[in-house]
Amino acid sequence: MSDLIKEVEKEFLEKESKHPDFKAGDTVNIHVKIKEGNKERIQQFQGTVIQRRHTNTNGETFTVRKISNGVGVERIFPILSPSIDKIEIIRKGHVRRARLFYLRGKQGKAAKVKEKI
Amino acid sequence: MSGIIGKKIGMTNVYDDEGRSVSCTLIEAGPCVVTQVKDLQKDGYRAIQLSYDERKEKRTPKALKGHFDKSNTSPKKKVAEFRKFRDEFTGTVELGQVVNVGDVFQEGEYVDAISNSKGKGFQGVVKRHGFKGVGDATHGQHNRLRAPGSIGASSYPSRVFKGIRMAGQQGGKRVKVINLRILKIIPEKNLVLVSGSVPGSKNSYVVLEK
Lengths: 117, 210
Known about the structure:
The complex is a heterodimer. By secondary structure, chain A is mainly beta. Chain A contains 1 helix and 5 strands.
């Protein structure tokens, strides 16, 4: 990639380094800034990371899955987005692949990711 | 001045204040040199000619070199004319004047980008005009999958109307994309970041115009 492009991306990439390092399988709590009118509040979204895409680019995203009222909910966050206030790692997971799409077909105990010790 | 010449560097994405991702193109624009000022008396219309990108002297025809000598600059590769300049600049533009991005544009402004699109060669109607093709791939068909279908009626009019979309050369021609927002200007490095995509390959010349 051109050095000149890095010049532009720098500002955003520096932002990412303040987030902790996490992987697919980890349970995370995302603090998302939400604007309502001219008020801003923080909403939390807690779940399992099932993939990270476009890593090492400006457009990197990650997908978090949780079960809400018995319904599976997935949310995709751009990691460099200014609307992400904070990422907390709740639990490190032990998984053997980078994309955990197999969790989608599973329920209850089968959908659990083992904890990394 | 109403525009500037630059070179496409590549694409990336940035985030706006609301956290939305915006695709954008980075363009290295200027510094350009004014190499000709056209006026009503002599040329019949008013325009400013800008030149951009150094050219080797030994690769420059003598006639062209003479043109650049008039404005006391080294030979340049790309020359473009700007006619939409605002009145307030008339008279203040001189030959040999250097034009930078910061002088021409401000962040948040909308510009048009003109460039040659990437050549796609001789293409069929499915790629070139978005036709859907005619038939199935199976059920005994063998050559209608990407065909254009009918191109008109029979005994009346007994001819094909002009302008019927057919296969042919796609791309490789001048394209103008309008209303790209300027997201960022880095004057020290002569860089402009515009929203959206710009025709052409990396390193191709782009004319930005207000």
